[in-house]
Amino acid sequence: MPLLLSPVEARILGTLMEKARTVPDSYPLSLNTLMLGCNQKSSREPTMNLSEGEIATALERLLSLGLARQSSSSRVARYEHNFQRGVGVPEQSAVLLGLLMLRGPQTSAELRLNAERWYRFADISSVEGFLEELQERPEHKGGALAVKLPRAPGAREQRWAHLLCGPVSATAWPTQGSESAGATADNALAERVARLERELAELQETVQRLCTELGVSSTHQ
Predict the structure, then answer these.
(1) Which domain holds residue 16?
(2) What are the C-alpha distances in Å from 5 to residues 13, 114, 127, 158?
(3) Residue, of 174 and 65, whose pLDDT is higher
(4) What is the pLDDT of residues 7-24, one digit of tens each?
(5) 129 and 100 housed in the same domain
């Protein structure tokens, strides 16, 4: 039977997968830290404003599906993903699906760039190879987990989307395909700025967590 997640469940899984790789010192995540990660304004498409209650409810289902686990090594409940083993895909495929869950449809080139802090793919062709495997995943293993969307008008490359929340409509997501060729440099600059904002947000989360545990006020508040 194909795996079908809600958008909230997909956001939680993607966030747990991201933080496991980018801020391992603060992983597994407490419910509050997980909420902050899910509601980030950077590196999220679409952005969400989830409550702890919504996240707790979604976590219960992920735990029952074996896609998340609760850590018992802390007085505060902490959570970690079990995505790769639970879904039965290699690490590279799990990374690509995690990025698609967090950031929406992306081209192979965008996925390779965005995966830099998660996993370093040798080249774009290797990214496409794993995406094609996800698209051609046999029914006896649960069916396809990714799909290559039709080329948008004016776009040079096709984008990929995950199927963990069901079928995807190509028109439901904005595309940059209609932009002029001169926007390429602007896009590259915007991506670098977004990456710096992402790293800053992650550092702030870590500082806030440490200050909370130590019982002191953080300097950036």
Answers:
(1) 7-86
(2) 10, 23, 24, 24
(3) 65
(4) 999 999 999 999 999 999
(5) yes
**Measured distance CA(167)–CA(143) in Å, rounded:** 12
Considering the domain boundaries, does residue 206 fall inside one?
Answer: no
CB 11 within 8 A of CB 38: yes
Residue 82 shares a structural domain with residue 95: no
- In the chain, alpha helices (H): 7-22, 31-38, 52-65, 83-87, 91-103, 108-114, 124-135, 184-214
The tokens describing 156, both together, are 């040079």
Instruction: Quote the CA–CA distance of 115 and 107 in Å, as a whole number.
Output: 12
Q: In residues, how long is the chain? A: 221
pLDDT recorded at residue 11 = 98
Contact between 35 and 205 (Cβ < 8 Å): no
Q: Which of 6, 1, 44, 2 is nearest to 165 (CA)?
A: 6
Residue 78 DSSP one-character state? E
- Give rounded-to-5 percent helix, strand, coil for the chain: 55, 10, 40
Nearest to 109 by CA among 122, 96, 127: 127
